Automatic annotation (TrEMBL):
It is an enzyme of class 4 (lyase). The keyword Chloroplast applies. This is Fructose-bisphosphate aldolase. GO terms for cellular component: chloroplast.
């Protein structure tokens, strides 16, 4: 939750609303209740950072703005650079990240930027600290704190997210460097189950990460990513997402996480990338809002979709009545056209930044439910799905 004060209804889910031990292969007709809980009934451990966490969450969730995810690992950033014929060197990564954060007026549409560790400590090509450039744009720096996905023993070829060891000391150091929120990428695969073991591991890991992050002054983005891989329809995604989020909130409560000081990032409820039946933005919006209503007390939404598709889906959600601040947290859906326009050439920086601002403004309008889709290029409509995506 970004902050209870950001919503038309400030409610949290009672632990009795969560069901445990069910296989995710079984359908459920359960509908989560929203029971208001007095603050005194909650035990939270955010310590001396409690007020700051709420302030940070509110600042990120301001109308018409969202999050730019630029936290790809150096290896994945190298793949992006290779697509435009550039070598994966720190200088080239620095040049690309400089292009992104220094786009004039970006802060009008972006409230937070998730960085990779190298970027948090990096300077621009002009020698200014990247965190300082972001601050000048009124963009809050964030940091990816996990250590990547590894195989989960005993599961159906599924993964778990490592990085809890040493997380407290790393988080404290990131805070000192200027980060004020963080991201932890764990995933759930529908084609591979998902098994009860994998879902429980994802939910528990997210809850421990969230508690440790808050204890060190960082607002955690809580995101159990439902992967796009598979041939399943939108109903199957909806079913799995409901059960995953029930598990996540159960463990958040057990770990005394302060709900007012977190940001939720549910994946949009869409069919699998290989499903033959496609759904309209209105259908995606309906299923996603239905999920939020049943399971979740605010939301940042992401994709793997085309730039325009992601924006249209976000716009449709904000044209329907809902009690949340529903915004965006995009990487490729903001940067894909920008990267191709740049091509590694200094003379293209201005055009590339203009492309970035075009996408950022489009999603700003979508957050307000005012996006029309007029004048979009063919390139922005190209899909960006990558099977078994990792970064």
């Amino acid at each position: 939750m970004a902050s209870a004060s950001l919503f038309k209804s400030s409610a949290v889910l009672d632990k009795s609303d969560f069901f445990k031990g069910q296989s995710l292969r079984q359908p459920s007709a359960y509908v989560g209740r929203r029971n208001a809980v007095a603050p005194s009934a909650l035990t939270v451990r955010a310590g001396s950072y409690a007020d700051e966490l709420v302030k940070t969450a509110k600042s990120i969730a301001t109308p018409g703005r969202g999050i730019m995810a630029m936290d790809e690992s150096n290896a994945t950033c190298g793949k992006r650079l290779a697509s435009i014929g550039l070598e994966n060197t720190e200088a080239n990564r620095q040049a690309y990240r400089t292009l992104l954060v220094s786009a004039p007026g970006l802060g009008n549409y972006v409230s937070g930027a998730i960085l990779f560790e190298e970027t948090l400590y990096q300077s621009t090509v002009d020698g200014k600290k990247i965190v300082d450039i972001l601050a000048e744009q009124n963009i809050i720096p964030g940091i990816k704190t996990d250590k990547g996905l590894v195989p989960l023993a005993g599961s159906n070829d599924e993964s778990w997210c490592q990085g809890l060891d040493g997380l407290s000391s790393r988080s404290a150091a990131y805070y000192q460097q200027g980060a004020r929120f963080c991201k932890w990428r764990t995933v759930v695969s529908i084609p591979n189950g998902p098994s009860a073991l994998a879902v429980k591991e994802a939910a528990w890991g997210l809850a421990r990460y969230a508690a440790i992050s808050q204890d060190n002054g960082l607002v955690p983005i809580v995101e159990p990513e439902i992967l796009l891989d598979g041939e399943h329809g939108i109903e199957r995604t909806f079913e799995v997402a409901q059960q995953v989020w029930a598990e996540v909130f159960f463990y958040l409560a057990q770990n005394n996480v302060m709900y007012e000081g977190i940001l939720l990032k549910p994946s949009m409820v869409t069919p699998g990338a290989e499903c033959k039946e496609r759904n309209t933005p209105e259908q995606v919006a309906d299923y996603t809002l239905k999920l939020l209503n049943r399971r979740i007390p605010p939301a940042f939404l992401s994709g793997g979709q085309s730039e325009v598709e992601a924006t249209l889906n976000l716009n449709a959600m904000n044209q329907s009545p809902n009690p949340w601040h529903v915004s965006f947290s995009y990487a490729r859906a903001l940067q894909n056209t920008c990267l191709k326009t740049w091509g590694g050439r200094p003379e293209n920086v201005k055009a590339a930044q203009d492309a970035l601002l075009t996408r950022a403004k489009a999603n700003s309008l979508a957050q307000l439910g005012k996006y029309t889709g007029e004048g979009e290029s063919d390139e922005s409509k190209e899909g960006m799905y990558v099977k078994n995506y990792s970064y």
